[in-house]
Amino acid sequence: MGNKTIIQTNKAPQAIGTYSQAVKVGQTVYLSGQIPLVPETMELVGGDISARIRQVFDNLRAVCQAAGGELEDIVKLNIFLTDLDNFSIVNDIMATYFKKPYPARAAVGVAALPKGTDVEMDAVMVVG
Predict the structure, then answer these.
(1) How distant, in Å, are the alpha carbons of 29, 65, 72, 85, 109 from that of 60?
(2) Measured between alpha carbons, how far is residue 115 from residues 47, 112, 121 in Å?
(3) Per-residue pLDDT tens for 10-19?
(4) Which of 30, 59, 76, 106 has the fewest CB atoms inside 10 Å of its own CB, making it the most exposed?
């Protein structure tokens, strides 16, 4: 695929597996799942679920910017939570990162996530 570009930035956590931070095809960017790792230390951010959710949005923002976009260019956001009781906290924090019109979104309850975290998000963004 000749029009595929791999997106990489040191302002977001490095991949902890066999994947790229994002892949751009044409004007569409597919962002890999982000967990609340601090890019400089590759350790999970301390604090409560709110701090972890904010770190995930900050990581997504860094990858968006590396691909030439911003969070508001996200058209689809997938949220994975090990405890769906945290859904309202995600909504409250998301409202500080996004403004209307909001992206399409799914929130999914899962049994476990990498590194034992309780939140992960991936996204699709359109730029240009």
Answers:
(1) 12, 9, 11, 22, 20
(2) 16, 9, 14
(3) 999 999 999 9
(4) 106
pTM of model > 0.90: yes
Within 10 angstroms of residue 18's Cβ, the number of other Cβ atoms is 5
Q: How far apart are CA 46 and CA 15, in angstroms?
A: 20
Q: What is the CATH number of the domain that holds 35?
A: 3.30.1330.40
| Partners of 81 in beta bridges | 109, 119
The total number of structural domains that make up the chain: 1
CB neighbours (10 Å) of residue 76? 15
List Cβ neighbours of 3 (8 Å cut-off, separation of 6 or more).
25, 26
Chain-centroid distance of CA 41 in Å reads 18
C-alpha distances in angstroms, 111 versus 11, 17, 66, 117? 29, 20, 31, 11
What residue numbers bound the domain in which 77 lies?
4-126
Task: Output the six-digit token pair for 113.
Answer: 């996530």
